[in-house]
Amino acid sequence: MVLDEVDFPRGGVLTEKTPKIVPKAGDVEASEGASKKKKKLEKKKHVKSDFEKIYGIEDPEGGEKSTYKGVWNRILTAECLTAGVLGLGAVRDVYQHYLVLETASNCRVKVPAAQVSKQFSANPAPLQEIFTIGQMLAFKITKPLEGKKYPEATLSPAAVNSHLTPNFVVNGLVLNGVVTSIEEKGALVDLGFSEGASGFLANSDMASDHPAAALKVGQPLLLRVHKHTGKTSRVIKVTGHTETENLDEDVIPKLSLNRLMPGTILYAEPEQAIPNKGSYVNLGNNVRGFIHMNHLPPRLRFDLQKFANPIRCVVLACQQNAPLLILSAHPDVIATSRSEKRTTFENIDVGDIVKCVVASVDKKENVIFKLFSSADPSKISPVTAFATKSKLEQGPKGKELYKIGSEHDCRVVDYRFVDRVLLVSNTKDIMKRKIMSVQTAEAGTFVKGKIRSIHSNGLQIALEGGIVGFVPALHTADRPVTQLAKAFEVGQDIECRVLFVHHERNNLFLTAKQALVKSKYTIINDYDDVEEGAVATGVVSTITPKGGVVVVFYDRVSAFIHKSVADRILKLKVGMPITVTVAKVDAEAERMLVSPLEEYLSPDPVKEEQEAKADKKKAKTLNRKPPKPFDVCTVKVTGYWHLGNQESSVVFAGLEMPDGSLGRIHASELNPEIYGASRKPIADFLEANQGKSVVVKVVIVAKVKEIKTETMNEAGGLIGTIHRIAECTMIPSKVAEPLKRHRLIQFEPHFPNNSIVTAYVDGLAEADNTIRVSIHPKQHGILHLGTRVDDETPEDINFENGEVLTVRVIGTNRAHKGKSMLDLSMNLDQFSARDDEIKLRKKRKNRKSTALPSVTPAKKIKIEELVDEPANLTEDPGFDFNDSQFTPLSMANVSRIGDEGEEVKMEEDDVKDEVKAEDADSEIEDVEMTEQEQEVATEKRLLRKESDLLQADHQPTSVEEFDRLVAGNPNSSELWIRFITYFLEQKDVTRARAAAERALKLIHFREESELFNVWTAYLNMEVMYGTPETIKKTFERAIQNTDSLKMHKQMVKIYKSLDKTEEVDELFESMLKRFRHQDLDVWVFYGQHLMESERPEKARELMQRALKALQPKSHVPIMSRFAQMEYKFGDSERGKTQFEAILNTYPKRTDVWSVYLDMVIKHAKGDAEPRKLFGRVTSCKKLPTSKVRMFFQKWLLFEEVRGDAETLEKVREQAVDYVNVMKRELGDADL
Question: Where does the protein end up (predicted)?
Fold first, then answer.
């Protein structure tokens, strides 16, 4: 009898194949009489027993002994997974509402979320946070195979362990358990026993895949009974390291099939090998099983004769009171607690091309390949490869092409976790295929497919290799499609590009927009690979409320178009494709600024506006309309400004406006880019532009009075004529300003004391040793030249009319012909002695200005007076509202009643008395002071007091001084806090509180930061001098009137600065109640406080509370922050464990990798550990190329600081090797 294996190694049934006998022609008649007897014998021969009918196991023939009758030797199939079957499976896929487990022979079962455990149903969480790909779990079939659906199973210990009792439990037995609560030293586990016994998993016994920090209530785990004494106990100790020990040897003599559980590990002694199939083994007490060759270690798989000694094996499937028993002796499967043993295949991923060596070929010409280890090519890899005949390229040689030992390049198309097999193919179609799986699809790749189904929200596309993608409705066409069913048909061919991959849900999203599919521009799918100036096609995804546009490219890379450009985009809509040019990119911040091509834009509105303005100017010229403020005009430069017969001014240039009226431009309003470095700007401007046309903007239209000396009125006064003059500017920013706001283009209205300004010489005084200067058209000043007090001789004047000077404002003279004239000084140092002399010469009297002779002796310059219209007053230069020019003393005297002269006199008398008192105490001989000397002393004293009050570090010495300061600047929290401190230094807490309350009333409510500072000072004061009642009352008021969260954090700082640990704890607990879902920093700061106060266990408990309270998206950041705290304040090994747990679940989180590296570099004892971690991250296949490059750069910097030339060169070689591998893979993909 010939045994034929069906579809090895996918699974199948061993069927009996009877050879056909072709009778000879002469024997046909001779056999007619015996044919009936033959048929009866054959029927009797093929009658199966009840055992064979139920389990499908035939009686062995030939060399097999009768002792193996009933031993399960078939390959596991989905049909064998009937209700009640127990199995061990690896998590293959995790979806939103269910997960898929893979067991032997690629059989897969579905576990709905409701079948995870009752504790999980009571405390639901995303399945992606509970399960890890490759994790091993025991399951029990609840619903057998129906059609194409997977059999359904449960993970609940109550079902999986339902046949067990606590008395049945022995050391080494593997069970499913569910976490019911997390304690300080471990976790309580529900083992499903009805008698109430539960398990305890200590922190030290937890597997690396599931550390204490990552455990959740309701999470199922595969556990081994550990250190069980055999006595009846309500607590059974278990461990997550399931593979470290076998089933207890004391149980082996009494072993039976019903005492085996999935995941249990025990020794298997070989008995009889079946060529090309496997070997029968004895597990003890004559309990026999069969290990298929696919489940043997690599060294035995292809040479069963070497299988002579007992080896460890694990139970993959069994059933109570039935012969079903599937075993595996593969070391990667026996390591049940280490998920990476299933998920990694010698660093080979789907889509990789590997060199395969033919190991065997079955009768259906399916080929089993063996691979060699990448680390040591002389050793056989623990992973094998398998290809069916249909997946192999067939040549003219036929079977000879795949002789045993021949080598072939094949591409990996899939893998099996439990069988440790790679499914490969070398057909031309698959070798050229660009996408082999959803997870390995690269955004922007061009693909072809067929429409599989049409939905209201998009199209489902069937791609090569059974991959299914989805085209959202927005991406089905360049223009919106309202009825997809009418625009597309099922089975229609369609061209697409990969839009992005949702790795967590294993979903592939495509775009069918022809503008993207047919685009020949750059494919943008990573910020790091984008270059400025690159042209790419994207899709408008958002139009912001402010008018900006967000453009999305492949792999959800986005860019921004500024509103000024977006306003010009024609027919702008969400979903429209648009081709743009990259203007600026910031890869670290993941930001990009782009600009559309001109074909998408309407004509430039700025140019249109300028043309419209030019037309308006022409119209105005024809209509002879006078210029108005904000008009942009083309004017003619006439020369130096003059009015009538008056002499020319050297600080103004005359202009002829479009309507023929007069205009002028001051030296300060010329283009600073051209005339900023000029010594005499107006002269240079006229030299270049006199008689030519220039573009200016009208700032104001003022009225200037022309005095006619030859004409007198009846009263004997001179008669003047009023002219409307357009004051203009050529400063580019003012000319281009689109808003008609006077404050945006006006002349500077305020000049505080001690400010540095630019002035233009406009004339000299005859007797007062001063120069008349002009700052801008509406502001003039008097520049005082330095002299000695006792010498009235003027210094030599070396200035020229129109020259630029840099001066300092020292005061305001409002008595100069009724105008506001600035007092200026050439000394740029603040509070100099020369200023005292200048102010002394003024003597606080109103003096009439002398005539201002010209610098040139033969000429005199007369300054025109600006006469403002009372009805249309644009500016009022007669009074300066800038309070910075007043001293605190003058601000305090504003409310006094009396004559101004009397105030000054009284002030001077007080200063005189002080000066006399000081002189009386000195050792200098008392000399009677002259009136002039007294005025000098008085002036110096006043200046000294003003200077002291204005100094930032000046500390007032009286309440009156503080009152003056806060009256001048009531919104300054700094002044108020100094005021409060003044009372506290005098131990007057009551008045300090009053000052704080006064500050809170007077500071404007919009000055939030100033109010916050005062509240902080108030709370500091109460904590130091108040009672618990006053502290509580003040704090409650503070959080009601400021940002509550910010004030809570500030209060924590106050308590911590005073070492009030209990108060800090209470405040943090209160903050958790209020802000636990709002701010992660509250959890982190509390944890850091506990760590710093040497309470690490409480900090770890806090992290568990945080994971329960926060949303899943916050779990990784909070675990990362607490892991950093472990490195800084706690146990670095715990920190390492937490980082490893995060990266096992989220290997693509480059931010976590980066922080982990920083912690290891900073806290590791040597350089070996950082180098090992660098090696891991740079060899991680799940990270994109751009991120790996970043880590290589970081590694190089590390070696430059900590390594030597040899280690640095080694890293560079590894980086070059990585780049070459990537280039080769990209080159192969393009074939």
Answer: Nucleus, Nucleolus
